[in-house]
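Example record

The entry below shows one chain as it appears in the dataset: sequence first, then structure tokens.
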Amino acid sequence: MEIKDSRIDSGKAFDWGKTSREYARYRDIYPEEFYKKIVDRSLCINGQRVLDLGTGTGVLPRNMYKYGAEWTGTDISPEQIEQAKILASASNMKIDFQVVPTEQLEFPARSFDVITACQCFWYFDHEKVMPKLAELMKTDGKLLILYMAWLPYEDRLAGASEELVLKYSPTWSGAGETRHPIWVPDIAYEYFEMEDHEEYDLMVPFTKESWHGRMRACRGVGASLSETELARWDKEHRELLDMIASEEFEVKHYAALAVLRKREE
């Protein structure tokens, strides 16, 4: 499904379906510490019903399945959900994956204890979504927003790879990340209160092949380039890795989370 949004990449079209196979293979990269931060806050654990928005290939519910929550994952991309179902089935996980835009969710009121949004919160129409999420949450429900990004100004390889993405997608708005708290729109505070937030550094391990795959799966590359452009990018990025990367390495990232508590009704 092709998406155009003036807030993202200056309106350049992208389609996660074009890169779903790479996404399934190479985007499951969050270290255990990333998940531990969630569990330590008593979120997404046994006895809770959790809705994961923009679930993609189901990375968050699949990795947190062992903590006992009952998971539902939704995404706008049929191809992403197809991969999520394949991966969950292979591990005998019972997760309800559905193709539906967040703006069109139709679950009963007060269905979920926790709603999560990992790497996707800025894509939503917040004027429509925030009251809907509050309606779907139980009393004292929590909205957990999650993010992780490489640090291009501190990690040589990340910076060089990012420059190559910009060569082919100069309007890509995913570049130039620095540490900062997760942005929350003003409309959210009509329905939620900020309970907690944290920003912290992570070193994420890769091989040449997995870093290449992770970069290829990003919005500015696999989700938006033509076949010809993608072939040229692929060749140049592999050459870049051969020049400056060892076979195994770590890339410096930062992660951030924000926990918003539903306001009393």
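Notes for this example: Strands lie at 49-53, 70-75, 96-99, 112-118, 137-150, 192-207, 248-262. The longest strand covers residues 192-207.
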